[in-house]
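User: I'm new to structure prediction. If I give you an amino acid sequence, what do you actually give back? Let's try with this one:
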Amino acid sequence: MLRLAVIGLGRRASHMIKAIVEREPDLKIAGVSDPDPTYVRSVLDEVKIDHRAIEFFDHEDQLLERANAYDGLLIGTRCHLHTPMAIKFAGTGLPLFLEKPVAITDEQVHALYNAYCGQEDQVVVSFPLRVTPLFQAVHNIVQSGRLGTINQVQAINNVGYGGVYFGQWYRNYDEVGGLWLQKSTHDFDYINLLLNQTPHAITAVSARRIYSGDMPFDLKCSQCDRTAACMESPQNLKAREDGGGMPMDDHWCAFSKDIRNQDAGSAILIYNDGLHASYSQNFITRRGAHRRGAILTGYKATLEFDWPSNSITIHDHHTSRIDRISVKPTGGHEGGDDELVRGFVQLMRGERASGYADLRDGLFSAVMCLAARESALHRTFQAITPPWVPSEPSVPGADGENIPLPTAQYVGV
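Assistant: Good question. You get back a string of structure tokens that encode the predicted 3D arrangement of the chain. For your 413 residues, that looks like this:
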């Protein structure tokens, strides 16, 4: 019998718990720390998990006192609490499932690294994309050499449900750290994995041209007289079936002033061998315009893959051959959540969970996202320096800012 403890049990955590219990009938949710146990019970009821035998705690310190009674820990709090909660339990040695982003500030990155230095592999970071059947198929093709030498990656994330980041709690910048950390953290991780290397610099831009306005930040849709005509109000979202169903009183105005999330952003990742990757995210697309995936261009062939359609297309460059591959996953996040569960259960059983993102992967992705955020804010190149690597040398830029000093020769730079 495996006994799991949970800190912060909302809808995402309940989904993962449901997947864990379905996979491991002998696993028991033994303890939950959450300031709102009534809400937790209602969420567990939604996913049909019996909570009568679960011990509920008002504070994580109470759960910490009983750490020896558990075989694993899942942290599903709001994002700004991921780091402090993980640090608090670092000394227990419990296998940890940590939601992304693992950290939302540079200070948190360094503190989390120091707390888990030497035990990073005891953490499974919630990066489901890298373990989806679609991505695994793409990764195998790339590793086989079918594409030849890759010289460019063009990645895209046109989010089909982007309004949630402006009308729900994700709009709280101090809690989530912005949309580089919320969305790009997944994409940067899979790009690095495909290329089997990590970038040393990044430049990025972002904008908010649609979700901008002069409405009060704390205005609820239930208090607004424009909801009938507003395409982002819960009633119209529900009518279109693209994210509705939320009560009017629980939805804020998506066009409020002081929202700091961008509704579009693009970045260029620079690797040491001259390879570069572009990445764009957009939160305005809807319905069939939803896209997430990438184009990889090699000398022998071009490969394009897309998660919403679970499809892969390969165009040979020197023959007329075109391969089209369809993948049919099951489970959340296009099958990635089921694989995350498999890895975490392995870890709780004392087995090595290889192929899953560990804490170093999570920290490196967070560092990339923070560098992109800084670059977009100041319009500069930013070095990507994880806490386990000394800072790279830099030279003054034309505007007085510093840019990374290249460690390799670049064509056209």
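You can read the tokens as a compact description of the fold. Here is one thing that stands out. The two ends are 58 Å apart (CA to CA).
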